[in-house]
């Protein structure tokens, strides 16, 4: 069996992963492919000053199963503060409908800020799955 012969399910998986990677990287995500998993991370909010810092990281974990043509998505955000974070003004809008959570957060302050759009990637990933004929599943907990 030659090394250049790839089963259809693996080729399908690779092309769909390449499409998702391209779209994620175009919007500022750092993407890693690890087997059947696609990991993406973005620093959404960063505020620093002499006495400390605050950062919010937005993460996506996508599991692509080419045999069943199913994509499973787990989305998380983590806020970390070190020392005394700089004073900031935050505005947050949250909405939950069933398992779907949408949160828009805007931070502005002396040491910086940023914007978190939690739930936004899920919408277009779900649309890409429908376009490509893949089933979409939103994961709560382990993927």
- End-to-end C-alpha gap: 33 Å
- Count of discrete domains: 1
The overall strand count is 8
Question: What is the percentage of strand-forming residues?
Answer: over 45%
The major β-sheet equals: 8 strands, mixed
In one word, what is the shape? elongated
Rounded radius of gyration (Å) = 18 Å
Helix content: 10-25%
Number of DSSP helical runs: 2
Mean pLDDT: 89
Derived from helix and strand composition plus strand pairing, the structural class reads: alpha+beta
Can you characterise this structure?
There is one protein chain. The chain has helices spanning 8-26, 120-132; strands spanning 30-34, 37-49, 52-65, 70-83, 88-97, 100-109, 112-118, 135-138. By secondary structure, it is of the alpha+beta class. It has one domain (8-138). Strands 1, 2, 3, 4, 5, 6, 7 and 8 form an 8-stranded mixed beta sheet that branches. It is elongated.
Q: Which helices and strands occur, and which strands form pairs?
A:
Layout: H1 8-26, E1 30-34, E2 37-49, E3 52-65, E4 70-83, E5 88-97, E6 100-109, E7 112-118, H2 120-132, E8 135-138
Parallel strand pairs: 4-8
Antiparallel strand pairs: 1-2, 2-3, 2-7, 3-4, 5-6, 6-7
